[in-house]
Design brief:
The chain is α+β, with helices and mostly antiparallel strands and 156 residues long. It folds into 2 domains: 38 residues, no CATH class; 113 residues, no CATH class. The protein has 5 helices and 3 strands. The longest helix has 37 residues.
Length: 156
């Protein structure tokens, strides 16, 4: 973070001189002290933020893969004249602790074709599945594993 602020100092000044460099060091040090005191930010927090960002990017790719997989399955169900659909409402206990992770999980399930999160209340998810093949163990969902990992990263 401090390297970014120092580089930004030079960009805003538009020149690189000894005077600008020395004053920049003091300004960046003062800003970093303020951020550390006011927000509890430190080197560890910065590394944690980068790790969470990388995990979130990986999560988006996994979500796109799962949506594609479910879409192909739903295309097969719709096109097959003999397909037997058996819609069900399933209740799951969410293994996630934070509200944000539970909301992301509920929305990820809803984004996946063939499933809708009907209710999320007190750590339980009520999920409507259009096909019995969509029934899977909540713990085995790649979404849940990745969200648990992100929660663990935040709590460490």
């Amino acid at each position: 973070m401090s390297v970014f602020l120092y580089a930004l100092w030079f960009v805003f000044n538009g020149r690189i001189t000894l005077e600008v460099a020395i004053i920049g060091l003091f300004v960046v040090a003062a800003i970093m002290l303020f951020i550390r005191k006011a927000f509890g930010y430190g080197l560890n927090s910065g590394l944690k933020s980068v790790l969470i960002l990388l995990q979130a990017i990986a999560y988006v790719f996994v979500l796109i893969f799962e949506i594609t997989k479910a879409s192909l399955h739903m295309i097969h169900v719709v096109r097959d004249k003999n397909a037997q659909v058996s819609p069900k409402l399933l209740s799951f206990d969410s293994p996630l602790k934070t509200t944000a992770a539970k909301v992301v999980l509920a929305n990820s399930i809803t984004l996946t074709p063939g499933t809708i999160t009907a209710e999320s209340k007190e750590g339980k998810l009520l999920v409507h599945v259009i096909d019995s093949h969509s029934i899977i163990d909540m713990e085995k969902l790649p979404y849940v594993k990745m969200l648990k990992k992100m929660e663990d990263t935040l709590n460490v």
